[in-house]
Design goal:
With 88 residues, this protein is mainly α. The protein has one domain. The radius of gyration is 16 Å and the shape is flat. The mean pLDDT is 83.
């Protein structure tokens, strides 16, 4: 543990706040889905950094679950958009 984990986690949290503002302005559903994927990947990074910084190893399990849910959500959105494109 180098002490560098917590400032990086704080930077990533600030990144998520900016992404939340961008999601509120997003004109399309795809923009909002990309923001949700950003929340999944960045949230995973924040949780792993916090676990490594000393908050507990259970956060790694939560981070893995968040990454899995983000991936499944992205796949479901892509499949739905693909099917909608074929029907048009």
């Amino acid at each position: 543990m180098t002490g560098f984990e917590l400032p990086v986690a704080l930077f990533l949290l600030c990144n998520l706040i900016v992404a939340l503002l961008a999601a509120a302005r997003g004109p399309t559903v795809a923009d909002r889905m990309l923001t949700a994927l950003l929340f999944g990947s960045t949230g995973t990074g924040v949780l792993v950094l916090l676990a490594y910084g000393g908050a507990g190893q259970m956060l790694v399990d939560v981070a893995l679950l968040l990454a899995l849910l983000a991936a499944i959500g992205g796949i479901a959105f892509a499949r739905r958009a693909w099917q909608r494109g074929r029907d048009d």
